[in-house]
Design goal:
Number of helices: 4
Number of strands: 9
Largest sheet: 4 strands, mixed
Strand content: 25-35%
GO biological process, one term: translation
Shape: globular
GO molecular function, one term: structural constituent of ribosome
InterPro entries: Ribosomal_bL9 (IPR000244), Ribosomal_bL9/RNase_H1_N (IPR009027), Ribosomal_bL9_bac/chp (IPR020594), Ribosomal_bL9_C (IPR020069), Ribosomal_bL9_C_sf (IPR036791), Ribosomal_bL9_N (IPR020070), Ribosomal_bL9_N_sf (IPR036935)
Function: Binds to the 23S rRNA.
Structural class: alpha+beta
Keywords: Ribonucleoprotein, Ribosomal protein, RNA-binding, rRNA-binding
Order of helices and strands: EEHEHHEEHEEEE
Length: 150
């Protein structure tokens, strides 16, 4: 059975890989767990499009990672507005890596993958918080994100 993986499967492959597996493994495990989809011509074209988009966003080496790091560290005034509780200091919910990536993009920075953004726990209060972005092995940018109540 020919399948396209939608999630990382240990010993089999990464998302987007086209794999050949036994019928029972595909029908009874991979498909019900939504870890794969049946490989059709349309699905393979869609996977190729997704992979091209990922490669466009990908950091292509240490020099490119250092350029992106400098661009990120030049960003100033990185502010995220969120709803607060009655005291004005705690947030309803928390600020996620997706919110930080959107704020970086809105401030004129590069498009980043949410998995590269790391915070010290959940951001649940108003104030300035450190955020690190792992761009490449050995290259990490550190930003200050200001969270304000709104």
């Amino acid at each position: 059975m020919k399948l396209i993986l939608t999630a990382d499967v240990a010993g089999l492959g990464a998302p987007g890989d086209v794999v050949e597996v036994r019928d029972g493994y595909g029908r009874n495990y991979l498909l019900p767990q939504r870890k794969a989809i049946v490989a059709t011509a349309g699905a393979e074209k869609q996977v190729a499009t997704i992979k091209r988009a990922q490669q466009a966003r990908e950091i292509r080496g240490t020099e490119h990672a250092n350029e992106v790091k400098q661009a990120l560290e030049r960003l100033s005034g990185l502010t995220i507005t969120a709803r607060t509780t009655g005291d004005g200091r705690r947030l309803f919910g928390s600020i996620t890596a997706v919110d930080v990536a959107a704020a970086i993009k809105a401030a004129g920075g590069p498009t980043l993958d949410k998995n590269t953004i790391k915070t010290d726990g959940h951001i649940k209060t108003v104030g300035t918080h450190p955020v690190s972005v792992a761009l490449h092995p050995g290259v990490t940018a550190t930003l200050q994100v200001t969270v304000s109540g709104g």
